[in-house]
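This is your field. Have a critical look at both lines of this record:
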Amino acid sequence: MAEYGGKVVPADFTLGNMLFEPILEEGVFRFDCSSDDRDAAFPSLSFTNQKNRDSPIMNQNVPVYTPTFECVFGRQIVMIELPTGTSFYGTGEVSGQLERTGKRVFTWNTGTSDYDSGTTSLYQSHPWVLAVLPNGEAMGILADTTRRCEVDLRKESTIKFVASSSYPVITFGPFTSPTAVLISLSHAIGTVFMPPKWSLGYQQCRWSYDSAVRVLEVARTFREKGIPCDVIWMDIDYMDGFSCFTFDQERFLDPKSLVKDLHLNGFKAIWMLDPGIKREDGYFVYDSGSVNDVWILKADGTPFVGEVWPGPCVFPDFTQSKARSWWACLVKDFISNGVDGIWNDMNEPAIFKSVTKTMPEDNVHRGDAELGGCQTHSHYHNVYGLLMARSTYEGMKIANENKRPFVLTRAGFIGSQRYAATWTGDNLSNWDHLHMSISMVLQLGLSGQPLSGPDIGGFGGNATPRLFGRWMGVGAMFPFCRGHSEAGTVDHEPWSFGEECEEVCRLALKRRYRLIPHIYTLFYIAHTTGTPVATPTFFADPKDPSLRTVENSFLLGPLLIYASTIPDQGLDELQHKLPKGVWLSFDFDDSHPDLPALYLQGGSIIPLGPPHQHVGEADPTDDLTLLVALDEHGKAEGVLFEDDGDGYEFTNGGYLLTHYVAELHSSVVSVRVSETEGSWKRPKRNLHVQLLLGGGAKIDAQGTDGEPLQITMPSERKVSDLVSTNKKLFRNRIESAKCIPDIQEVSGHKGIELSSTPIELRSGDWALKVVPWIGGRIISMMHLPSGTQWLRSRIEANGYEEFSGVEYRSAGWSEAYAIVERNLEQAGEVESLKLEGDIGGGLVLERQISLPKDNPKVFRVDSGLIARSVGAGSGGYSRLVCLRVHPMFNLLHPTESFISFVSIDGSKHEVWPEAGEQFYEDDLRPNGEWMLVDKCLGLALVNRFNINEVYKCLVHWGTGTVNLELWSEQRPVSKQSPLTISHEYEVKGIS
């Protein structure tokens, strides 16, 4: 041990300023703790070319900001301090707020269902922060490590990375704008693959369309109802026993015939492939993988077997080139069935019946030398999904070099955009997740992945008509546009929620298809230059701090989409925070209270097309519309990219890129082509120009594309009249529109309506959410100072529950509870909620949840099983009952979490996940206190209880969860002898 600053520190403790060298291009620097650390760093899996990270360039510039480091206990802690007023974004696929100050995330790909704003690890890892400085300049910081990495932004204007030693930190900038930073980042990690044009249309999915007959029925209904759609997805149930590369011989007997029928109706078909390969002799995939020795191994050198959908499975080791080639060949053969795209799911990799939700970290990957060689799973875990997506992409490309692959991946790493699109995972059908979906899509774009979107309508639970319609309105503007829902919920197709919702969905998707020429152009620019596609509103004016936290609007290039994510607030009630400058509103004569507002930035021209039913209907000779918004100088410009919509001829000049300009001179606006690129000849087609005047008014003019078009501006009085008339038309459309009804319950298999509003209790350190209508359960336990969500919950299950018997989910967990009393903090000393649920037999479960004002660090639960009206024939006593407190807590870091307590007999206990389920009775019970410790967070959730009321304590470890249960004695109760348990929770820091 040594001493530093008066404190004893380990002998391996070092600290200081990091060493730098310029790399890649001007303004980009690599930082290492020492020259030895530079030499010891693992190869980069984020850079497209490792030499770009490892080879310095000749440059005399020095970095503006230099990180500091501490190395201790094998961990490297990096900090970079930026000016006060800096705003943080990026960090990849993360839930919660757009501006990330105050947040901490951990890059560890995790198959997380039911996530919320406090979840710290999702399906993808991006150890990357985009920092926007107070003056509007920006810089990016990348911790180039594949291992678990803590990204800590809790201290204002300070970025902190913590991961295993050694890893370099790469800084990009400061540059003049956030866009410039992302362009520079793309020179390191690559740009998004060029998507086939059809993949930008609407896509319909379900877990699961259970037969080819049902798939064709859904496709036919889209066409009959005139709702645009391009893709139908096949979830896992198309397989034979969930075995990859197979088809169910009854329900999907002839996939080629199914795809042929879909193609005839203008649909593409995308099919799921998971990494788990069923361990079954005679199954051709397992047999060939075993012959080729491609499986991930356990520490003892035998293939690892983990359980997922097919049962016991082995897993390809995608870190080996021979495994990637083996998988690519399987994909190549699979494509021959007419497969248009592939969906890689469960590729964190997710493992059932595992506390960590994934495979053991000491599993062995025999990786290629250029990837890092033979390493444990802890090294390669975060890139497993990226490497699987890469293998799938390469297999599709081998199958047909004249078609662009389309791959969707759940798991990924920074750089995954080179091979695959992504979505935001298993979200929920509620208003919080609708609102959060905007920020999640934007954060992915700010982390190098521009092709993403949520499950529109929510994956888990039943949407309501208004929620679904609103979500479709904004979802139709996202880069990736797909509806998806889980098994057991009501149907979530656009026509499933009544005529009003169906019409809103139709209007929303027609908007998207009109905008396809613009969206496709944005993706070409993103592919060739690295610019993002969807960006936060503040990108229009990075110097304006008031825009940096705007979360209900975003930009598609110069197009601003403003959405309402509040149930009772329609378009006409929305307060619009616009950037400085000229922003002109418009619509397609389709304004509706449940659709977003649209604005075009002054100085811009965007191309529009007809609202086709699918992208394949489009023809180069279709009429072209240019939407024009002049700036304060009377000028505008825009661009249109056109090619075959698939294949790679565009890389050899087989395209047409047209630059249009508009200029106002002496009351005449001239619109013309200023520049073209590519070898394509301009199609002969009509040109429509719509010149926006403000207030939604516009002037229409027609001509021939490629030829100058002149528009005479009307007088100021005429413009004023046009604006006034259009405002009246807009108001009439809004007032006459059939609004989607605010129905609060949707009948269905689950009968659960997730968009109902939970009751919120907030005081001191805690914010709780309670759903009285199902078990009175607590579904959210947010510790505000640490930003930690402790509960794992769905509205219809889990979270904090209570049962009335020793049996799991005995009476009490699902009944509707009545609110007996509600006290707000301002009305007294305690914010509290008292609930009561009738569980039959004259018994009620009573629960009071309190946040005492005099002790803001705790919240308290007082529960009782009470005999309210037990019959005289039973002597006034109830049936045999037991009050069982059953909270399900989230394990954010399962391998770093344990239960700690001291028993009544004085013995000390640390209970780790490997211990399985454990009962503690008599003198082995915790002596009135036990705690869930998360070493990674440095926090413990302390649960204190009255030991005289608790007869048993149970620890049950689940997949990424733990239950800390308190059981009363088991006996009948009377009015005079209820069963009660009083307990409280507090979060403490641990050293």
Summary: The CA atoms of residues 764 and 856 lie 4 Å apart.
